[in-house]
Amino acid sequence: MSVSRRALMMGGLSALCLSLTGCYTVGLPDQPPLPDETFDYELAYAARKDGDFELPAINYKSFDRRFWRQVVDYKSGERPGTVVVDPYNAFLYWILTPSKALRYGVGVGKAGFAWSGDAQIRVKREWPIWRPPLEMIERKPALMKYWENGFEPGLKNPLGARAMDLWQGSRDTLYRIHGTNDPASIGKNVSSGCIRMWHQDVIDLFSRVPLRTKVVVLGKQEEAS
């Protein structure tokens, strides 16, 4: 039975069956099927309406294929359902089994290298308001105007279409997995920001991961091979 058909039969949960490792089902119900050999990238990265906003198409063919959304071989000691961020190779992995993961390309700012370790997704926001961190305001005082009321949701908002806020215990780390108003930044180290994804990809991830999902941000010595 194909992965996509089985996913539909199991209520949309992502299911991946491997002969040696068995079947694993992870994530939220009614999520989209996993990408497979018949996956339609033109449709996945096409222009689309999301809420009140019109998302532009992603010119994905201008990027290295490794940054396209795809299921890959990936050995991890983390449990299925965990998100692993490798900022040094510009990848985000959503663990499916001990040997498979759904991988997305990401862009990483200086803030994305500022810490490593474990966190949880404690807040998920659609078309979020953005308030610049105080450290960013110190570097760019003109951003102070967004501190009180925030930058309104929309395509120009630095957080883009979705944001997933990372917490450690009761503390908001102020680091986010979020969309981007600069699609060309995927696969690159950019001047500011945390972990950024194409709108279509962050919406896809958002539809899969529940609150309290564990997120592991790798340090330099741990970067994936």
TrEMBL record:
One family name in Pfam for this protein? YkuD
Pathways per UniProt: Cell wall biogenesis; peptidoglycan biosynthesis
Presence of the UniProt keyword Amino-acid biosynthesis in the record: no
Q: Where is the L,D-TPase catalytic domain?
A: 81-218
Q: Where is the signal peptide?
A: none
Active-site residues? Answer: 178, 194
**Entry keyword Transmembrane helix:** no
Q: Which family, according to the similarity comment?
A: Belongs to the YkuD family.
Q: List the protein's name.
A: L,D-transpeptidase
The protein's organism comes out as: Roseibium litorale
